[in-house]
TrEMBL record:
<dbReference type="InterPro" id="IPR027417">
    <property type="entry name" value="P-loop_NTPase"/>
</dbReference>
<dbReference type="Pfam" id="PF20703">
    <property type="entry name" value="nSTAND1"/>
</dbReference>
<dbReference type="GO" id="GO:0006355">
    <property type="term" value="P:regulation of DNA-templated transcription"/>
</dbReference>
<keyword id="KW-0238">DNA-binding</keyword>
<feature type="domain" description="OmpR/PhoB-type">
    <location>
        <begin position="24"/>
        <end position="122"/>
    </location>
</feature>
<feature type="DNA-binding region" description="OmpR/PhoB-type">
    <location>
        <begin position="24"/>
        <end position="122"/>
    </location>
</feature>
<dbReference type="InterPro" id="IPR049052">
    <property type="entry name" value="nSTAND1"/>
</dbReference>
<protein>
    <submittedName>
        <fullName>Transcriptional regulator</fullName>
    </submittedName>
</protein>
<dbReference type="InterPro" id="IPR036388">
    <property type="entry name" value="WH-like_DNA-bd_sf"/>
</dbReference>
<dbReference type="GO" id="GO:0000160">
    <property type="term" value="P:phosphorelay signal transduction system"/>
</dbReference>
<dbReference type="InterPro" id="IPR016032">
    <property type="entry name" value="Sig_transdc_resp-reg_C-effctor"/>
</dbReference>
<dbReference type="Pfam" id="PF00486">
    <property type="entry name" value="Trans_reg_C"/>
</dbReference>
<dbReference type="InterPro" id="IPR058852">
    <property type="entry name" value="HTH_77"/>
</dbReference>
<dbReference type="InterPro" id="IPR011990">
    <property type="entry name" value="TPR-like_helical_dom_sf"/>
</dbReference>
<dbReference type="GO" id="GO:0003677">
    <property type="term" value="F:DNA binding"/>
</dbReference>
<dbReference type="InterPro" id="IPR001867">
    <property type="entry name" value="OmpR/PhoB-type_DNA-bd"/>
</dbReference>
<dbReference type="Pfam" id="PF25872">
    <property type="entry name" value="HTH_77"/>
</dbReference>
Length: 961
């Protein structure tokens, strides 16, 4: 598509339009007028705020109006330094469409040409055909110069402008450094045409005398009035005028500013007022616009330079860092650190600007660590700004000095909280000397004064001190006599909250984990209380597992266990802590004797005190650890021990869990029939559904095991239906460990059925989740399965290295079932002509499997070994045939008809190459004819086609079906 030019007013040849546009610097379309030299765009004479890059993109498209501009050309022009992808471009295109009202009321200016780029399709007209906007030289305003650094606030300016037109009086509220003055000054510039230049700026920031407020306002408007009659003079002057007056920085003279604003609003009906303050004026006619932080990347976001630039906070950081003159460039390597800095600075522009000015000296990564340890509240900014904005400390101190003494005390106490907290937490912790009503009133006041942030969610309101404010208030608390009492009350509050919630309802505390971590750190510090720490670590265990914080669980469990000897720790605490330590090590991929040594003391304690539910839970964990570490016979004995305990306790759910464990053990040991009996017995127990505690024993685990058995027994259709339903159910489970473990357990069914194309996207999601939650062992297994999926679609060059690397890692960590992953690896190596490597791989797997009695995949191991021998140059066909016969025999003994078919196909092909067609036909037909379903599957289709090649079909055989 070479051209998409069209015009509503005049038909203009595309080439002519492009030529004309290329020499013009003023463009008019619809209600818009764009001046390229002044970098200004107006709508009906009123300026529109666009970021510099959005303006550049629009100008580039307009200069090529009617032609498709390739995405790569737009990126090269707008981001000459590179390092940006199409996602960032799409963000700016979307912002442009919103600013232009593209698609509303029939307006159309920008169009996307799929696979190519973007095209400006608006109707351009000559500037002299439009009524010129009023000349700026005629404006008599006293506005400060339009801010040069204006990132992420375009929509705020538009929103405030719209509200002012409709409501006359708007107060822009927000904490110090949020950019209130910048936004209202920009709003004033945007509304110059609307008010014919009659826009005046009044700043109260440099006075501390409230009595001077009317006089300062009068002086700013050019009135000569004495301090006693300034307010009356203002009213008389403004009564019949249509003007916009900006009252900036009202909070420290709020009574006087509020009184003046209300009088002007009432007595000057055409006057429009916009005020800025850290709290509302609370007067008649006032409407609130609460200025939010500029958008920052979310927590734990993994960013590239391109994706980071889509966030205004990062864009501002980069601009200020570059302007500071240091050698800083946003790269893929530092993008996540920069995003983390912006988020930690709460998206507050001043904090971002001050911090960015020092990134060239320290580096982004080092600055993240610096913020973790202590905010540098003394970093200085530009000398030309007001003193209260030269450092973060000055900005916060400005607000702090406006507080009452009681407000200062409560603010210091609230600094003990990390991240969000509830009103109940604040009252219980910070209000130990004040009554509830006083604390509530102070919290409301701190919110109103933009010192404390609040967010009302679906359950309750959460409060939060911005990190910069918290650092300042924490210094004040540290210098007070309250510091130790606050730390103790804080820890006791969260201990009581966790003990009250128990093990299931985590929604109320999941977002407050920073507080729990902080409380634990104090408990085990030199000044802390070990007894509270032991109890808190125990109560936190369910949350550690629900949030997949396995390393942290090990840390606090170990510290609490060490402290048990120093205190009178209870048996309950000891049992829970030892159990948690062993289980966390298991899930973190540490399959060693230390994990078993941690679970064993817990089991002994449970047995000694007759705690049957804990015994069952611990046996379940011990069983899985034994499977992971390759102790398959021990795992079967452990499951039998658990079954006996469950029967004794008459607990249906526990019995179902133990029978799932028995079924899985039998499955690993190659006893397919016994495995099915146990699984079906477990599934018949209605109590299975109740288990969603700290294990992976979701009902889906039993369903997936059943699906595996069904495939092995020769029921591929039933197997796929069962596993697909289980997987669909698992996607909705809100438990990362449980979901990832079960999805990996389901993989083999898709692999055996040669249906990996429909499963690979789940593997990709699983890998992202295991990485996010630090599930090391599951991540490696997931990488192995990704390698297998790559091999299944022919990507040998990437599949073999990925699978081999995963196998080596799992062997290093002594993962018990790693031999099963060697089957597809050896098969791929053999197919790639690397026969010696393939034989070494599969021989080691067979030896390891026989050593630990891992017989589940022995038929397939033998089949792959035989195929590798047969494929090698100078192959030993007789040996290969013997191994295939052995594979068939093992599969028959196990009751694994699925494996029998795969081996029979290989054996039939080997016999066919020797000219033994009748033997080949008989071997394959004897296996394939035993199937009663799955005739559409790849293996059975292959069998049918091979039988057709080998000889005439026999009546009633698969070949005739």
């Amino acid at each position: 598509m070479a051209s998409c030019w069209r015009t509503k007013n005049t038909t203009i040849p595309a080439g002519a339009a492009i030529q004309e546009s290329s020499v013009r610097n003023t463009f008019v379309f619809g209600p818009f007028r764009l001046d390229a030299l002044q970098r200004r765009i107006e709508r009906d004479g009123s300026p529109i705020q666009l970021s510099a890059r959005a303006f550049d993109i629009l100008l580039a498209l307009i200069r090529q109006a009617g032609n498709v501009v390739r995405k790569s050309d737009l990126i090269a022009k707008t981001w000459p330094d590179g390092g940006v992808d199409e996602n960032s471009l799409r963000v700016y295109i979307a912002a442009l469409r919103k600013a232009l009202g593209d698609g509303h009321a029939g307006a159309k200016y920008l169009t996307t040409i799929s696979g190519q780029g973007y095209c400006f399709v608006g109707s351009l007209s000559s500037p002299d055909q439009q009524k010129p906007a009023p000349a700026r030289s005629n404006y008599s305003h006293n506005l400060p110069i339009h801010p040069r650094q204006f990132v992420g606030r375009e929509q705020s300016v538009q929103d405030i402008s719209d509200r002012l037109k409709a409501q006359r009086f708007v107060t822009v509220v927000g904490p110090g450094g949020i950019g209130k003055t910048t936004v209202v000054v920009s709003t004033g510039h945007a509304l110059l045409a609307e008010f014919a230049g009659q826009v005046y700026f009044v700043s109260f920031g440099e006075t501390s005398d409230a009595a001077l407020v009317p006089a300062i306002a009068a002086s700013s408007l050019g009135l000569a009035a004495g301090p006693n009659d300034a307010a009356s003079s203002l009213v008389a002057f403004l009564r019949d005028k249509r003007m916009l007056v900006i009252l900036d920085c009202c909070e420290h003279v709020i009574e006087a500013a509020a009184s003046l604003a209300e009088r002007l609003y009432k007595e000057a009906p055409d006057l429009h007022i916009v005020a800025t303050s850290r709290e509302l004026l609370r007067v008649e006619g006032e409407h609130t616009y609460r200025l939010s932080p500029i958008a920052s990347p979310p927590e734990k976001a993994i960013l590239t330079a391109a994706s980071a630039r889509a966030y205004p906070a990062v864009e501002l950081f980069v601009e200020r860092a570059t302007a500071a003159g240091g050698e800083f460039a946003l790269t893929d390597a530092n993008a996540s650190d920069v995003g983390n800095l912006c988020r930690r600075l709460d998206g507050i522009p001043l904090a971002i600007e001050l911090t960015a000015g020092h990134v060239g000296t320290y580096g982004a990564g080092a600055m993240v660590q610096l913020l973790d340890n202590q905010f540098n509240l003394l970093w200085e900014g530009r000398r030309t700004v007001l003193p209260r904005h030269r450092t973060l400390r000055a900005t916060i101190e400005w607000s702090y000095n406006l507080l009452s003494e009681t407000e200062r005390v409560i603010l210091g106490r609230l600094s003990v909280f990390v991240g969000g907290f509830t009103l109940d937490a604040a009252r219980s912790t910070a209000g130990f000397e004040e009554d509830d009503n006083t604390v509530l009133a102070i919290i409301d006041s701190l919110v109103a004064k933009s010192i404390l942030a609040s967010n009302t969610g679906p359950q309750s309101t959460r409060y939060r001190l911005p990190d910069t404010t918290r650092a300042y208030a924490r210094d004040k608390l540290a210098a007070s006599a309250d510091v130790e009492a606050m730390a103790r009350r804080h820890a006791c509050y969260f201990l009581a909250l966790l003990e009250k919630l128990g093990e299931r309802d985590f929604s109320a505390v999941a977002d407050q984990f920073g507080n729990i971590r902080s409380a634990l750190a104090w408990c085990f510090s030199a000044q802390g209380d070990r007894e509270i720490g032991i109890a808190l670590a125990t109560a936190s265990i369910p949350l550690f597992f629900r949030l997949s914080l396995l390393t942290e669980c090990q840390l606090w469990a170990t510290r609490a266990i060490d402290a048990l000897d120093q205190t009178a720790g209870s048996v309950k605490h000891g049992l829970a802590l030892h159990a948690a330590l062993g289980w966390a090590r298991t899930l973190a991929g540490q399959f060693d004797d230390l994990g078993i040594a941690s679970l064993s003391p817990a089991l002994e304690l449970a047995e000694r005190h007759g705690d049957l539910p804990s015994q069952v839970r611990l046996i379940d964990r011990l069983h899985l650890l034994q499977l992971f570490s390759g102790k398959f016979d021990d795992a079967l004995g452990t499951a039998r021990r658990g079954e006996a305990i469950a029967l004794k306790s008459n607990d249906r759910a526990a019995l179902a869990r133990m029978r799932v464990a028995l079924g899985i053990s039998c499955h690993y040991l190659g006893d397919v029939a016994a495995s099915r009996l146990y699984i079906e017995a477990a599934l018949s127990r209605s109590g299975l559904d109740v288990d969603e505690e700290l294990t992976l024993d979701h009902p889906g685990r039993a369903q997936i095991t059943l699906a595996r058995i069904l495939w092995l027994q020769g029921y591929p259709d039933q197997a796929m239906a069962t596993v697909q339903k289980a997987v669909a159910d698992l996607i909705t489970v809100n438990h990362p460990i449980m979901r990832c473990r079960a999805l990996l357990w389901a993989f083999d069914v898709f692999y055996w059925a040669e249906e990996l194309a429909s499963y690979e996207h789940l593997i990709d999601g699983l890998l992202a989740e295991t990485h996010q939650h630090n599930l090391f062992a599951l991540q490696i297994v997931g990488e192995a399965m990704k390698g297998i999926a790559l091999l299944a679609r022919g990507a040998t060059d990437s599949g073999i290295p990925m699978l081999r690397s995963s196998v080596e890692k799992l062997q290093y960590h002594r993962f018990g079932a790693v031999a099963g992953l060697c089957v597809p690896l050896a098969a791929a190596l053999s197919a790639a002509g690397r026969g010696d490597e393939a034989l070494d791989t599969i021989d080691q797997a067979i030896a390891q499997s026989r050593h630990c009695n891992f017989l589940m995949e022995m038929p397939d191991m033998l089949r792959v070994r035989a195929e590798t021998l047969a494929r090698k140059a100078g192959s030993d066909v007789v040996k290969a045939e013997q191994i295939l016969e052995q594979s068939l025999e093992v599969a028959q003994q196990q009751g694994a008809l699925g494996y029998e078919l795969r081996t029979a196909i290989s054996l039939a092909r080997l016999l066919q190459r020797q000219g033994r067609r009748q033997d080949a036909y008989a071997t394959l037909a004897s296996v394939s004819n035993r199937f009663t379903e799955g005739f559409h599957t790849r293996s059975l289709k292959t069998a049918r086609e091979l039988l057709a090649e080998l000889g005439p079909p026999r009546s009633g055989s698969l070949a005739a079906s």
